[in-house]
Amino acid sequence: MKRNRLIYIPGRSALLFLRLALPLVVLEGIAILISYLIDRQKDILLAFDTWSGAIYDYLAAILVAVLLAIVADAVEMEQKKRNKD
């Protein structure tokens, strides 16, 4: 017996936002990593102390990007509902 698996596909606005935001977030992560590794060669403890705050900012950027995509998708769904009525 086959089961139909429902996979949710976000709307165009959410996908467009994610296509723009996620590559920028990845580039930010690469820049943080390179800077951390350069500073780590000089002093390990100072590099960890300096760049640990940047990691929290990086994780916050990922979270904000995903949440904004969810909001964009919800707005798009609401507009589609209103247009049907």
What does this structure look like?
The chain is mainly α and 85 residues long. It has helices spanning 12-42, 44-84.
Task: Give a brief outline of the structure.
The protein is an all-alpha fold and 85 residues long. The chain has helices spanning 12-42, 44-84.
Secondary structure elements and their pairing?
Elements: H1 12-42, H2 44-84
Report the helical percentage: over 70%
* Topology order in helix (H) and strand (E) letters: HH
Radius of gyration of CA atoms, rounded to a whole number: 19 Å
Morphology call = elongated
Low-confidence region ranges: none
Alpha-beta content class: mainly alpha
Oligomerization category of the chains in this entry: single chain
Largest sheet: none
State the separation between the terminal residues, measured CA to CA: 37 Å
Counting DSSP E segments of at least 2 residues, the number of strands comes to 0
Query: Number of helical runs?
Result: 2
Q: Round the mean pLDDT to the nearest integer and report it.
A: 89
Percentage of residues in DSSP E strands:
under 5%
